[in-house]
Amino acid sequence: MTETAPLFDAAMIETIWLTLKLAVISTAVLLLVGTPLAWWLSRAGGLWKEIVATLVALPIVLPPTVLGFYLLIAMGPASPLTALLGRKLSFTFEGLVVGSVIYSLPFVVNPIRNAFEAMGSRPMEVAATLRASPLDAFFTVALPLALPGIFTGAILGFAHTVGEFGVVLMIGGGIPGQTKVLSVQIFDYVETLQCPTR
Amino acid sequence: MTLSVTLGHSFGGFTLDVAFEAPPGVTVLFGRSGCGKTTVVNAVAGLLRPQRGRIMLDDQRLLDTNARVAVPPHRRRIGYVFQDARLFPHMTVRQNLSYGRWFARRGNGPDIGHIVDLLGIGPLLTRRPGLLSGGERQRVAIGRAILSNPRLLLMDEPLAALDEGRKAEILPYLERLRDGLGLPILYVSHSVAEVARLATTVILLDGGRVRAAGPAACVLSDPQAAPLFGLREAGAILTARVTAREADGLVRLDCQAGTLWLPDAPAAPGNSVRLRVLAQDVMLALTRPEEISALNVLAGTVQEVIPGAGHDALVRLRVGDDALLARITARSAGALALAPGRPVFAVLKSVAVAPESMGA
């Protein structure tokens, strides 16, 4: 049996910091993207709504490694996205943020969408009769009323980002300080038998 | 401020096709449940886009489907009091009241302290809507709508969800609004008592159409409209002035038709009140009844006799410049040979009284 390394060495602290940074940034992006998306899904109708709702739900049914593989190709050197941005996103922290946001989107959008749907159209109508524009009414009435759903979405998005493994490993590999997050570190420890598993 | 409405809208096998004008004062849209009242009010507020229609508030066009004009609800400056108050649950009473006022910041709105006093909601300001009674919630909702400084106030059965006690608590506030603020109100109701007490103008809706429209006293005493109000509720409105409180406690009122004595009146001598006389509380006699316990006897002439569906008949009388309705049996109508022009005496068995504004 090899000698066990101290658990909280500098590399581990760097990994924990990176994981928290990824989760906080991803959650913030998820709320900024997910809240308007959830609002639109709760109000819109027709074919477009169904298509978008299905796309948002896709990460729930796709295996993480498969989703990660698609994202790796989309962010790789030969993809149109890379040509557009002028640099590749695969194996970068920014790539991890994009991957986490896509992977966790349904877990954030669905609770918020449910909160908006439970609220119904009445509070917005009342606000309109009190001379609030749709944007004013959204911020003063819809958002506060949906706050419990937004809170649930934020917690789910955060926890889901911290806990993901397949997508992160596919897109980011495990570059220390850049893309090596806790789940990948745990996998490394177990694989190299650095932790007491027996 | 006059509202003029022309609307056509079909939904779920029901067709609404109405045109009416609401002059200043309280205009009551009266009709049974499902006759399209709320649809009309929602279209005026802009919450519902009718298939065809034109809505004008004075010379401003709020909706014109021909010209593809539809002012969005938040730019219409029309307040709306819903049947179920719909206060914002995440705000205190004070925040609810300030909400519309905040968006109405341009222009001089009503004073918040004045409205709070008028509606008697001072002690509630720091509370959350969830802790208020139904009557309190409705008063806050009324205050909130008024404080958004609207040009027109819509009220969709604001008392329907309340019990009789709460209704009696709110009606005086509504009368004060009508008389004190000069704000035109479009009021939806299916209660004849509310119509009789509040209405300046009545629009009678039935099956999606306007059946009668005009000043409250005319529509309420229109025998043709009586079946829509319900025969037990049919009756006339008289305006009278309280002239004296007499030694035995009775109050003397003078109206155009003559003098009445009532056990009580909600106003001091010199003020005017609105009297509601139900058709079934009026007896008719050909000669002035003598040695009778009833105090209130008015002389008039028969204008119209309308046979009812059963054994009854409705008689419309002219007493001075006012109209009275009497519901009697068809046999009596025949026995007294009642016909237009015949002088009769009306014996009033019961009179309901409500305060009336001096200006209305």
Automatic annotation (TrEMBL), chain A:
Name the keywords, alphabetized: Cell inner membrane, Cell membrane, Membrane, Molybdenum, Transmembrane, Transmembrane helix, Transport
**Keyword Cell cycle assigned:** no
Provide the transmembrane region boundaries. 16-39, 51-75, 95-116, 137-159
Q: How does it sit in the membrane?
A: Multi-pass membrane protein
Task: Note one Pfam family from the annotation.
Answer: BPD_transp_1
Q: Which residues form the ABC transmembrane type-1 domain?
A: 16-198
**Top-rank lineage group of the source organism:** Bacteria
Task: List the Gene Ontology MF annotations in alphabetical order.
Answer: molybdate ion transmembrane transporter activity
InterPro entries for this protein: MetI-like (IPR000515), MetI-like_sf (IPR035906), ModB_ABC (IPR011867)
Q: Name one GO cellular component term.
A: plasma membrane
What CDD domains does the record point to?
Answer: TM_PBP2
Query: Where is the protein found, in the record's own terms?
Result: Cell inner membrane; Cell membrane
Give a yes or no for keyword Flavoprotein in this entry: no
The task this protein performs is described as: Part of the binding-protein-dependent transport system for molybdenum; probably responsible for the translocation of the substrate across the membrane.
Which PANTHER family did the record assign? Answer: MOLYBDENUM TRANSPORT SYSTEM PERMEASE (PTHR30183:SF8), MOLYBDENUM TRANSPORT SYSTEM PERMEASE PROTEIN MODB (PTHR30183)
The record's NCBIfam families line, in alphabetical order, gives:
modB_ABC
Its family?
Belongs to the binding-protein-dependent transport system permease family. CysTW subfamily.
The name under which this protein is listed is Molybdenum transport system permease
Automatic annotation (TrEMBL), chain B:
Q: Name one Pfam family in it.
A: ABC_tran
Instruction: Look up the signal peptide feature and give its range.
Output: none
Q: Name one molecular function that GO assigns to this entry.
A: molybdate ion transmembrane transporter activity
Quote the SUPFAM superfamilies the UniProt record gives: MOP-like (SSF50331), P-loop containing nucleoside triphosphate hydrolases (SSF52540)
Report domain ABC transporter positions: 2-232
GO CC, alphabetical:
membrane
Is Hydrolase included in the keywords of this UniProt record? no
Q: Which NCBIfam families match?
A: modC_ABC (TIGR02142)
This chain belongs to the protein called: Molybdate transport system ATP-binding protein
Q: Which organism is it from?
A: Cereibacter ovatus
